[in-house]
From TrEMBL, chain A:
Highest taxon, organism lineage: Bacteria
Signal sequence residues: none
Any Pfam family matching the protein: Hydrolase
UniProt entry keywords in alphabetical sequence: Cell membrane, Ion transport, Magnesium, Membrane, Metal-binding, Phosphoprotein, Translocase, Transmembrane, Transmembrane helix, Transport
Primary location group: membrane
Protein name as annotated: ATPase
Membrane topology label: Multi-pass membrane protein
Organism: Mangrovimonas yunxiaonensis
Cellular compartments annotated: Cell membrane
GO cellular component, one term: plasma membrane
Listed InterPro entries: ATPase-cat-bd, ATPase_P-typ_cyto_dom_N, ATPase_P-typ_P_site, ATPase_P-typ_TM_dom_sf, ATPase_P-typ_transduc_dom_A_sf, ATPase_P-type_domA, HAD-like_sf, HAD_sf
Molecular function GO labels: ATP binding; ATP hydrolysis activity; copper ion binding; P-type divalent copper transporter activity
NCBIfam families xrefs: ATPase_P-type
From TrEMBL, chain B:
Alphabetized UniProt keyword annotations: Membrane, Transmembrane, Transmembrane helix
Protein name from the UniProt record: Cytochrome oxidase maturation protein Cbb3
Organism of this sequence: Mangrovimonas yunxiaonensis
NCBIfam families: ccoS (TIGR00847)
Transmembrane feature ranges: 6-26
Coiled coil spans: none
Length: 790, 60
């Protein structure tokens, strides 16, 4: 039969291929989705993109909380009892087929009146009739066709979000005014002593004045407020000379047209604001589908099932009290610290620690919030409320309330201090000179200097360079929160890595076998037995073993949390924990192992090691000469010897670190003057990521949530980290060169200003010319930099 | 030459009409998502073809 790929999801059909309607399917779930689509004339879904679907997951009972009226009220944007509007996040949205099928939801259920997808944000906006289809049914319908929405505690708090569109409005207004003013001022550039022009110029000038009003008082408002704030806290930021320039431009131009002294500088004024806003807009590259502000709330469910007097009721997680009995179903997250009462607990703490290997818990064991149950359902008793749980307590630390950007002085603001002082002294000296030679021109010269020295080009250099770098990094799967992070990255001198999930891979594990060699028939039996199990360790081991013929087993038993038992012919095999295969538990084992016995004789064990990411050793050796390196791990030191071999000798290795230990370690080094880059992944690194100067979260799948950080780096690109840091440093060099260029323009302009011959037309040429040439220079330079990175 | 007043008035009114159209477009959220509409506009044709196919098969 060969290898067939599933028509719906594209996975290779391994075990039980289903054949239906001339198509292959890997599982019943995928086939069902296909059936739903073909019954409703929606098979177009498969024409646009090959195998676009996802296998629907088991969601039985998971969304019962959506029948709760309070929760519905919180989640919906509009609710009049019948018509409801809701926006849901669906991580699986990834292609045009997804958009198509989701916008045709009304074909699947008549209750849906409208649905609109926002591809960038991966959200769907649905209007539906609640008496035909309830919110719960809607979510179940989406889950059934493989588009399970992600509903977390975060949705519960924010509910309705408003989009900030002021920058677009401002840019539109400035552009509109700039274009019209340019037209109106054009005739006067040539200073023709023409009759018609003389007669109508006043009208033209007052029209220009009218157009410039909204530009100064609305579009340019931020520059005045920012300059005022800066001066109040005694900082000469870049907005001070800009605001000064705008103010002088506006006042002088108004006086000029009022007393018929000249045509004013309204063209330069509107142009200046337009270019500055354009820079702001360009820098504002956002990744709509990524969030850099996530805390535990985006991981946690809204509600869980509470057991009381034998009945199950959904309860909002904030309402969980100490002593409540909770039912945690398969694939559900534990919201609070508690004690396991009964059930098979196999907890995956990968959200928290990055360690993907599930941990087995016995009844009476303590469970920590943030773990995910992976085998069946279990019952637990809450010991604390959500806010007081071990993990969530981390967020009460002050680090999470301080804004990193405020603490950092950007390169532009550093230079603007000297620049402002220089401009003001030139203006004063020139004015004094003219006061003695030709007093009538003195005021003219003073204002001309301030106008021409308005640092438009300087203010544009950083936004365009860094904005373009953000885009280039984004294409290389390095997603940065904002432009100032690049500047901070260029100044880093210490790099700290988390271990599990960051420098090790979650997906790949290395396995080594120790014990008696297995015979060929034993290996066949081993592989055949593993094939039937869905336990992550079995899957991992199955994938690693050599290809063998698969035999059908006479008997197969899976003992949850202990191991597997299989027989074929006269041979039997036991795979699992040491006690399960009849081997006394050896001294506390640090690493995960799977033991094997055949026909009741112990054979040996497979030990699992973390596999380090590709190119890790090379990366560390490249970083070694320039940076202090350290590894902070929450795990025990079982990997110490391995790491020592792999990494440069001076790398510090510190184990058994709690989340706040990591934070304190970084704080301590910062107090000694280090600029720290933290590279981590799990929620337990959240404190360290927030405390560090730059916190980078490593993610194997950027659609899966990462903790609050300054940048998200795709795991496959970790080995490029060195190149990325170097590129940020080059970007800073580009900005410095742009400063040199724009200062040259300023010097030329100052010559006209100081000598008292600044014509509006010169200002109108010089201002856009300097701005555009800086934009061209930075764009070309950063693109060359980007080419080198590829 | 007083016609220039009329011309100016007309040109500014036209400009302002476009400006208002821009403001309305932003307010309606047309600038919030700049990607999905580009995909969505290609769908109409696909829908029609499926309908036709199903119609012809029914007729057969």
């Amino acid at each position: 039969m060969g290898h067939k790929n599933c028509f719906h999801c594209g996975d290779s059909c391994k075990n039980d291929t289903l054949f239906f309607d001339d198509k292959y399917f890997c599982c019943n779930g995928c086939k069902t989705v296909y059936e739903i689509f073909s019954e409703n004339d929606l098979t177009c879904y498969y024409d646009m993109q090959q195998s676009p679907g996802a296998t629907p997951k088991e969601v039985e009972g998971k969304y019962d909380f959506l029948s709760n009226k309070n929760i519905i009220d919180k989640l919906t944007e509009f609710n009049d009892g019948n018509t409801q509007i809701v926006t849901l996040t669906i991580p699986h949205i990834h292609c045009s087929s997804c958009i198509w099928v989701l916008e045709n939801l009304n074909k699947l259920n008549k209750g849906v009146t409208a649905s609109q997808v926002n591809f960038g944000k991966k959200t769907i906006h649905i209007t539906y009739k609640a008496n035909v289809i309830s919110l719960k049914d809607l979510v179940l319908l989406l889950s059934r066709i493989g588009y399970e929405p992600y509903i977390s505690l975060e949705d519960y708090n924010t509910g309705k979000s408003t989009i900030n569109r002021t920058l677009i409005y401002k840019l539109g207004i400035a552009g509109f005014a700039f274009g019209n003013v340019m037209f109106l001022s054009f005739p006067e550039y040539f200073e023709l002593e023409e009759y018609w022009l003389e007669q109508y110029k006043h009208l033209f000038r007052w029209l220009m004045f009218g157009f410039s009003l909204p530009v100064v008082f609305y579009a340019g408002k931020d520059y005045f407020t920012s300059a005022y704030k800066g001066l109040k806290s005694k900082i000469l930021n870049i907005d001070v000379p800009i605001a000064l320039g705008l103010l002088v431009l506006f006042v002088r131009s108004t006086i000029e047209i009022m007393f018929d002294l000249g045509s004013g500088f309204f063209d330069s004024l509107t142009g200046l604001v337009f270019f500055l806003l354009l820079g702001k807009f360009f820098q504002q590259k956002t990744y709509a589908f990524l969030s850099f502000e996530r805390d535990y709330k985006s991981y946690f469910p809204i509600a869980v099932t509470k057991l009381a007097n034998g009945t199950e009721t959904p309860i909002q997680v904030y309402d969980i009290k100490k002593g409540d009995r909770l039912l945690i179903r398969n694939e559900e997250l534990i919201p609070v610290d508690g004690i396991l009462i009964n059930g098979n607990a196999n907890i995956d703490y990968s959200f928290v620690t990055g360690e993907s290997q599930a941990v087995k818990k016995q009844s009476g064991d303590k469970l920590f919030a943030g773990g995910k149950q992976t085998t069946g359902s279990m019952e637990m008793e809450a010991l604390k409320s959500v806010e007081q749980s071990y993990l969530t307590q981390l967020w009460s630390n002050d680090v999470f309330n301080t804004n990193k950007e405020d603490k950092f002085t950007t390169l532009t603001n550093t230079i603007s201090k000297r620049f402002t002082i220089a401009v003001l002294s030139i203006a004063i000296v020139a004015t004094l000179y003219w006061l003695f030679t030709d007093a009538s021109k003195a005021m003219n010269v003073f204002t001309a200097v301030l106008i021409i020295a308005c640092p438009c080009a300087i203010a544009l250099a950083a936004p365009f360079t860094l904005g373009n770098m953000l885009r280039i990094f984004g294409k290389l799967k390095f997603y940065i929160k904002n432009a100032s992070v690049i500047e901070q990255l260029a100044q880093i001198n210490t790099i700290i890595f988390d271990k599990t999930g960051t420098i090790t891979s979650n997906k790949q594990t290395q396995v080594s076998y120790s014990g008696t060699q297995l015979s060929a028939s034993e290996e066949v039996l081993l592989k055949s037995t593993l094939r039937s199990s869905n336990h992550p360790l079995s899957r991992a081991l199955y994938d690693i073993l050599d290809q063998h013929n698969i035999v059908s087993l006479n008997r197969y038993e899976e003992h949850l949390g202990q191991g597997l038992y299989g027989t074929h012919g006269n041979n039997s095999i036991k795979i699992g924990s040491a006690s399960f295969v009849g081997q006394p538990q050896t001294t506390a084992e640090l690493s995960t192992a799977v033991h094997i016995s055949t026909n009741n004789t112990y054979k040996g064990k497979y030990t699992f090691y973390n596999a380090y990411r590709k190119g890790l050793s090379k990366l560390f050796h490249k970083l070694k000469p320039d940076y202090d390196l350290a590894i902070l791990s929450g795990d025990n030191n079982s990997e110490q010897e391995n790491l020592k071999k792999l990494l440069p000798s001076k790398t510090k290795l510190i184990f058994n670190q709690k989340p706040d230990d990591k934070l304190d370690y970084i704080k301590y080094h910062q107090s000694e003057g280090a600029k720290v880059l933290m590279v981590g992944d799990g929620l337990n690194d959240a404190g360290a990521l927030a405390q560090s100067d730059v916190g980078i979260a490593i993610s194997e799948n950027i659609n899966v949530f990462s903790p609050a950080c300054d940048a998200i780096l795709d795991a496959s690109k970790l080995n490029q980290l060195y190149a990325y840091i170097k590129a940020s440093q080059s970007a800073i060099k580009i900005i410095k060169w742009s400063f040199v260029f724009s200062l040259c323009y300023n010097l030329i302009g100052l010559y006209f200003a100081v000598t008292g011959q600044l014509m509006p037309v010169i200002a109108a040429i010089l201002m856009p010319l300097s701005s555009i040439s800086i934009v061209v220079f930075t764009t070309v330079a950063t693109n060359i930099l980007g080419k080198k990175l590829n | 030459m007083s016609v220039i007043y009329i011309l100016l008035a007309i040109s500014i009114i036209v400009a302002i009409v476009f400006f208002i159209a821009f403001l309305l477009a932003v307010r309606k959220g047309q600038y919030d998502d700049s990607y999905t509409p580009s995909v969505r506009m290609l769908f109409e044709d696909e829908l029609v073809t499926t309908n036709k196919e199903t119609l012809t098969t029914e007729n057969d």
